[in-house]
Amino acid sequence: MYVPAKQTKSIDDAFLPTKFARSGRGTESSRRHRADEVVHFAAWCLTKTVKVPTHVTSDIVQSYVEYLEHIGYSTETVDQRVTTLRTYFEWHIRQMPAKRGDSARTNPARKVATAHPRACDRCRPQGTSQVLARGTSVKKACDVRDTRLEEWESSDFEVSLTSASANTRTAYRRDLELFAEWLMDSTPIMNPVDVEREHVRLYLARLHDSGASSRTVARRIAALRKYFTWRVRNGEQEHDPMTGIHTPQAKGRLPRPLDERTAVDVVTAVNPTAHEWEQARDSAVLELLYGSGLRVSEICTLQIDGFDKKTASVRVLGKGSKVRIVPVSKPCAKSLGDWLTSRTEVSTSGSGKAMFLSGRGKPLTRRDVARILDAAAQRAGLAGGTHPHALRHSFATHLMDSGADTRSIQELLGHTDAATTQRYTHVSKEKLRSSYVEAHPRA
């Protein structure tokens, strides 16, 4: 749905999409995207002679959702638009409550229904808890999801990416759907055969203007390049609109490790009021994140027979199903021993051989580990909190600062490419530079 400039001005005055977007959290790109979603809805409302948000009814919102589904918007986009509208009207009601004596305003998007249920079993990642934790799970074919944007054959494209991981296949499909939906909103194009290089360039310019990072743009280009190469190879179209499109140089991001004192404070900040089994489990999880540099997925997939008490080490299943042996610290070995002794208090018949379990006896998930770390960071007084991978970064950086060689750190982290480990040398050089500037009289 193309929105003329004059109409955009009137929408901004009446619906306040920019003000709404700025009220929420997130990056500039995500805020801009939320504003665009409100503008799209407002433009559709104008076609129904609804000029202000206070006149929007639940029937209007429901009709809008049915319109999106009818023209083929992906199920993810429809769900996202519904969520944005619910948040938007909650915000708008707070900003402009009903006047005294008038009936209280209600959220017209609260009870909106979609043709595709969010709890669709076929759209959920499939596999064991270990597979889900590693992020290698795939979704089943869904009749509703796979018939959206039918001309683009996004489902067949996703299946064709046999050499890519499940996460990459899902991401590329989503990137393709977002491009197709942008074309529907901005141009009359509904079929990939009609896409020209100029359309791709306009799309990339739009991403840049909205504040998308160079990494995001590079991935969108990679997805579209794969897609159109696949179509040309299958004889579905003759020209490739990605010819002559260059990928921007992605800016390298240095890891942001915690300082040694803060890292120790977080790892040792176990909840003193929790059960003994929970204290032991949380302590072991935190020690493995910082003391051994494990990934979250590696902690979630750790098995009870993977801990060797004699050698004080754990057998880890890393990326690409590669196994490595990683030493653990003395405090970690003690916590693991205490946890294994009390694990039977929460284990059930469905626990399997997973090392770490929740209070219900289920294997820990990524989110469970994040909650454990969030609580520890709060107890340690770490403003803004942290994330599990930051402890892995801290593990590598502190080893580098203490003189460990790059090759050893590479083995401990399970990096296939030494260039990945080299990032931590840059972090240490930055620390060296700052120390020089602060301490040397001639700096």
Overall form: globular
Largest sheet: 3 strands, antiparallel
Q: Strand percentage, roughly?
A: under 5%
Please tell me how large the radius of gyration is.
26 Å
CATH architecture descriptor of the largest domain: Orthogonal Bundle
Under CATH, the topology of the largest domain is which?
Answer: hpI Integrase, Chain A
**Order of strands across the main sheet:** 1-2-3
Number of strands: 3
Estimate the mean pLDDT confidence.
Answer: 85
How far apart are the termini? Answer: 58 Å
Low-confidence stretches: none
User: Please, how many domains?
Assistant: 3
Which CATH C-level class of the largest domain is it?
Mainly Alpha
CATH superfamily of the largest domain: Intergrase catalytic core
Please identify the structural class as seen in this structure.
Answer: mainly alpha
Provide a descriptive summary of the structure in words:
- The model has no long low-confidence stretch (mean pLDDT 85).
- It contains 20 helices and 3 strands.
- α1 packs across α3, α2 (17-23) runs antiparallel to α3 (28-47) and α17 packs across α20 (423-439).
- Strands 1-2-3 form a 3-stranded antiparallel β-sheet, with no helix packed on it.
- It is globular and about 75 Å long.
- It folds into 3 domains: 1-117, Orthogonal Bundle (DNA polymerase, domain 1); 128-246, DNA polymerase, domain 1, CATH 1.10.150; 260-438, Orthogonal Bundle (hpI Integrase, Chain A).
- By secondary structure, it is mainly alpha-helical.
- It has helices at 5-15, 17-23, 28-47, 58-71, 75-95, 129-134, 143-147, 154-160, 166-186, 197-209, 214-233, 260-267, 276-291, 296-300, 330-342, 366-379, 388-401, 406-413, 418-421, 423-439; strands at residues 307-308, 313-317, 323-327.
